[in-house]
Amino acid sequence: MSIQPKAGEMLVGAYLKHIEDCDFIDYQKHGRVDGKQAEVDVVGLKLDEEPEIYVAEVVTHLRGMRYNRGEPNSTTLERKFKKDEKLVTSEFGNQHTYNFQLWSPSVRPTSIEELHNMASDFKRRTGEELDLVINEKFTEEIAKLRTSAKSNKSQGNELAFRFLQILEEVQE
Q1: What is the C-alpha to C-alpha distance for residues 106 and 138, in angstroms, rounded to an integer?
Q2: Phi/psi of residue 29, nearest 5 degrees
Q3: Cα gap 40→23, rounded to integer Å
Q4: Class level of CATH domain 7-170
Q5: What's the pLDDT tens digit per position in 102-139?
Q6: Ranges of each domain in the chain
């Protein structure tokens, strides 16, 4: 069964393809971790001399990041990234460079410090950076994608990128 990626996931996938030059993008990558189902929102694979793997969780709650589990957002995300890290390293091994990312356009100030602490804990535990592409940084990175869409007229297979191309064309 094929599941349609969510809009935010498609934007991040288009970013990884067009800005980070990933060769392959996989949405909602499923696998098993510790006997339980796990899922990564977006995985990008860049096949250079030293392959890079981008592992992105995407949270596009527009009124601020909110998970309804009665716990801090960072606790939910920490659990997700632990599974992500186990899933991708079991799938791709440890001989690659990994880029773990959290993408969210709207994180409330009360959650920002929690997320920075979570990213620091992730680095201590795994040795890998967890890049927080949130709020203004999210806007800046998507602006790069919009600029690319405006200057690139060839039609690819990324739906979100094609939408941006159309929107940038009609704004001229």
Answers
A1: 9
A2: -70, 115
A3: 18
A4: alpha beta
A5: 999 999 888 899 999 999 999 999 999 999 999 999 99
A6: 7-170
Read off the tokens for 136. Answer: 């203004």
* Sheet containing 36-46, strands listed edge to edge, beginning at the edge strand earlier in sequence: 24-33, 36-46, 52-58, 97-104, 130-134
Tens of pLDDT, residue by residue over 43-61, are: 999 998 888 999 999 999 8
Residues across the chain: 172
Q: What is the DSSP code string of the chain?
A: ---PPPHHHHHHHHHHHHTS--SEEEEEEEEEETTEEEEEEEEEEE-SSS-EEEEEEE---TTS---SSSS-HHHHHHHHHHHHHHHHHHHH-SSSEEEEEEEES---HHHHHHHHHHHHHHHHHHS--EEEEETHHHHHHHHHHHHHHHH--S--S-HHHHHHHHHHHHT-
Which residues touch 84 (CB under 8 Å, ≥6 apart)?
Answer: 38, 40, 55, 57, 100
